[in-house]
Design a protein that fits this description.
The chain has 457 residues and is an alpha+beta fold. The protein has three domains: 5-81 and 149-338, Bira Bifunctional Protein, Domain 2 (BirA Bifunctional Protein, domain 2), CATH 3.30.930.10; 84-146, Herpes Virus-1 (2-Layer Sandwich), CATH 3.30.40; 365-455, Anticodon-binding domain (Rossmann fold). 32% of the residues lie in helices and 27% in strands. It has 15 helices and 23 strands. It has helices spanning 5-14, 36-55, 71-77, 79-82, 99-106, 117-126, 170-175, 177-183, 232-247, 295-304, 330-341, 377-388, 401-411, 423-426, 447-456, and strands at residues 18-20, 32-34, 60-62, 84-89, 96-98, 143-146, 150-152, 162-164, 190-199, 214-224, 255-259, 271-279, 282-293, 310-311, 318-319, 322-329, 342-348, 351-356, 367-371, 393-395, 415-419, 428-433, 439-443. The strands form seven sheets. It has a seven-stranded mixed sheet. A hairpin with a 6-residue loop joins strand 14 and strand 15. Helix 3 packs across helix 10 (295-304) and helix 5 runs parallel beside helix 6. The longest helix has 20 residues, at 36-55. It is globular, with a radius of gyration of 26 Å. It binds glycyl-adenosine-5'-phosphate. Glycyl-adenosine-5'-phosphate is lined by residues 168, 170, 200, 202, 211-212, 215, 217, 219, 285-288, 325, 327-329, 331-332. Glycyl-adenosine-5'-phosphate binds next to strand 10, strand 13, strand 16 and helix 11. ATP binds at residues 200-202, 210-215, 285-286, 329-332. It is found in: Cytoplasm. Homodimer.
Amino acid sequence: MALDFEKLIAHLKAQGFIFQGSEIYGGLANSWDYGPLGAELKYKLKNQWWNFFVRRNKYNIGIDTSIILNTNVWKASGHLGNFNDPLIDCKNCKSRFRADKLIEEKFPNVNAGTFSNEELENYIKKNNIKCPKCNEITFTNIRQFDLMFKTFQGPIEDDTAKVYLRPETAQGIFVQYKNTQRSLRKKLPFGVGQIGKSFRNEITPGNFIFRTREFEQMELEFFFSPNDKYNWFDHWLNEVNEFLMNELKINKNNYVIREHDKDELSHYSNKTVDIEYNFPFGRGELWGIAHRSNFDLSQHQKFSGEDLSYLDPETNEKYIPNVIEPSVGVERLMLALLCDVFYEEKINENDTRTILKLPIKLAPFLVAVLPLQKKQSSFSINLFENLLKNFDATYDETGNIGKRYRRQDAIGTPFCITVDFDTELDNSVTIRDRDTMNQDRVAIKDINLYLYNKINN
Ligand code: GAP
């Protein structure tokens, strides 16, 4: 059954995952805040990525660079020249659109991203494309719209103080390439990963947390010799695929791998493959894997005057390394994951349950302690506090047990421990599995082992 997107959004709000930003002031368009469970899920998702791509990868290391960088970085990277979108306004209703998207929505087979501004304007006129909001055909000329957020550093707001918030985390890695490589005496091939906020003044943000102006990226820049004949592009594409399938358990029928046409490529890339997820609003880019050649390091060498070449200890040859970049947005990945695990399951004629079948390692809580009756409270609180020493645990004693199971299903808690009448007699509890709803009787002394086995299976 098709996923009801509005229902998912309402569910995530009600359960404390995602709230509208600045809601009590009427909100701020397309900004979202992560509630207690959303923050936890986001933290675990980042941790999972960091473990897989940085901490437990034999080639890679991590870094954490600034959001505001020297403006010359953006000149060198091409963002100050190329990072803008063709904007068009409806003169009648004042709605604003990206001209290429306006065309592609009407004519899905046209790749308007490759058109010049003149070609876009002509195409809109020739095909009588109407404003999707008011149906009039009265558009302004196209203006290029700079996607980078600007601000000023220091008290004087003039051009010399103008700085930009980074639109990608990648450039921080390139700018610190030499320090990173030297400090850890890294030999090629090696990768540098980073997780952090990026900002883009998107013209058409939307689809919930899919496209926002403030978001987090998880990027890996993998450096290798131009003489290295191993197919690092496919290597990282396979790693991304493995991460999605085995770590996040995303259903592989829900995404496709699509290579960009030559005329679709970004200014820095000579090959890009996107992993596109079937979101409820349509298929959209989830993860991009780009071959950036030696574009960025060469540009930074040229603009900074620093020698960024690598002296190959084996061949004594000097060269600027090539780069493969897998790049994904934290929130976009979280949205794909949530769409994947959101189920409404019919239990019997009168009962359904809403369930988030999150992987065990990502669920905000691993385990909930539920006393069957109030009189088991102090014993149960004691058990809960002991579990907290090793696991992400929660406690709930309000409402009937059925309701409490549903509450935990709704937030994705994989295990519920019920303390019942027999617990104090046989020193055992019942542990219920979220997905199968099967129950095991487990001795209290074995609970930790039971949970560790589940986590590691
Ligand atoms: N460093 C390369 C780069 O930034 P990109 O395709 O522009 O490439 C990479 O972005 C990933 O970042 C995307 O695949 C997407 O997951 C995420 N992303 C980009 N723009 C976003 C936005 N406005 N909101 C949320 N996520 C975004």
